[in-house]
Amino acid sequence: MKHDIDVIVREVGLRDGLQIHQTFMPTDRKLAWIQAEAAAGVSEIEVTSYVPAKVIPQFADAEEVTVRSLGIPGLTVAALIPNFRGAERGIDLGVHKLNFVMSVSRTHNMNNVRREREESVADFKRIVELVRSQPAGKRPILVGGLATALGCSFEGRVPVDDVVRYAVALAEAGADELVVPDTVGYADPAHVKRVFKAVLAAVGKLPVAAHFHDTRGTGLANVTAALDCGVTRFDASLAGIGGCPFAPGATGNIVMDDLVFMLDSMGLRTGVDIEKLVAVREIVRETLPDIEMHGAIARAGLPKNYVGAAARAAA
Amino acid sequence: MKHDIDVIVREVGLRDGLQIHQTFMPTDRKLAWIQAEAAAGVSEIEVTSYVPAKVIPQFADAEEVTVRSLGIPGLTVAALIPNFRGAERGIDLGVHKLNFVMSVSRTHNMNNVRREREESVADFKRIVELVRSQPAGKRPILVGGLATALGCSFEGRVPVDDVVRYAVALAEAGADELVVPDTVGYADPAHVKRVFKAVLAAVGKLPVAAHFHDTRGTGLANVTAALDCGVTRFDASLAGIGGCPFAPGATGNIVMDDLVFMLDSMGLRTGVDIEKLVAVREIVRETLPDIEMHGAIARAGLPKNYVGAAARAAA
After folding, report:
1. Of A28, A58, A306, B177, which sees the most CB atoms within 10 A?
2. Separation CA A201–CA A203 (nearest Å)
3. How many independent structural domains does chain B possess?
4. Is B300 close to A250, i.e. CB distance below 8 A?
């Protein structure tokens, strides 16, 4: 982490947000979004997913998006991988970070990747071997993602012990980092504390990121709870795009612009310029006029006489 | 507090929400809203404001709304009072609770009630005397409200020392309870903790409630922070109605339905039936079709296999 950053915010809207949007966002516009957000100070962006284009046509341009994003100075370029083949594609492209995901809920994992959870752990081990077999300069950071860790649309609440079990399994298999997502927006701050405290206690010094959806309005409250546990890496999507296939009209990921405002207002430096970030919304709005956009700070503006975290830290 | 309630949620939409809405809500519809929300389990409702009807025509029916609300069994009927005359009106009507409000920000107090802050404290002392001169059965609970405690649209951030000074002044004058509002939606969880910790430390055992607006998306995160300080009384408005005159499209108070969901999901009993509460939104929607309504739980529904706080406590 850079010495002048307290919390890393990571844009996932191009993957998690766009994956349920039927209209293809032209590659040039994706790049415009990525470039503008990087210029606003967002240091890590999940730019695409290496799923087959026939499964999610939105990601038919995964190669081009990756390669062009890698040309942006200072940006950590991440991509989701559903399996070993995805890891191979990412490594061939030279992507910086591979976000592997399995589900802690058995039913969700079976539905999503047609695998028992132990099979997914075994897949992850093979990916670790693949990554480690690369020459030093070509090794991506490998992230283990625990989908449904905070609730499952099939099973409801997921036992904390199960989350810990698979967090430890991915950590022991060789993950460089973990991410604990509230895939369907079920979490509340009390449960967030229970889960993150347990996971953090179990995996030692491994970085653990949080990934919240704002489906039921608790997204930023959950961020507050995770901050209290010591979490300093958060996923979000610009304008909260994404929605939820099970909840019409719901927001998707927590709103990046509101997240950055809240953190900044708390005195936590993100390295992001809020006003530049809010301006990036126009790129999405122009390109996808039918996409639902959320966010309070874009409507309400900054408070009177607002002084951001960086200025306060420097004063 | 009832032994089976952990957190008291208080409806303020009929006052704080409706006061900036130009269309008069017919008295019968206000009562339908109040009755339905009381039936859903909300135990305290700020039903009106005793400001002159020529100032805010929405409250031209303050007397009738108060009297009819007092007929609802078990409901604590509260009303806002801007001054001594308002207190007299409330006492004549037999209202249960008088919510006096002054602003911690000097500029805001001058603009709002044309008084220096010390003059407002003096007004409050006169109101305390009036209340205490009533026979025992006719004495309302008197609340001291500290508007702009968490930020002011004229002055920006308000010094914590000023909040403490006027909290102590109202407490020493004889308030039965205090409420600390984020009048214009400037607060973040870190600042909430600073302010509430300082106020709670200064006023001893006096109950201190929180009143948040969700103007910049941080409302429920601020609730989480206040809960961490030990606050157990929260204001909210159904569907977040209210808006902000300075921020078009912004929500008003935090959304009652989302607040109740979050608390309930955390295992904190509110005594409110979420599904009955969400159903009350229809009364507002039918009556005021042009009012902007917010809220995530009404769109997304409860999580799969959801078990509420009361059932968990009983299990």
Report:
1. A58
2. 6
3. 1
4. yes
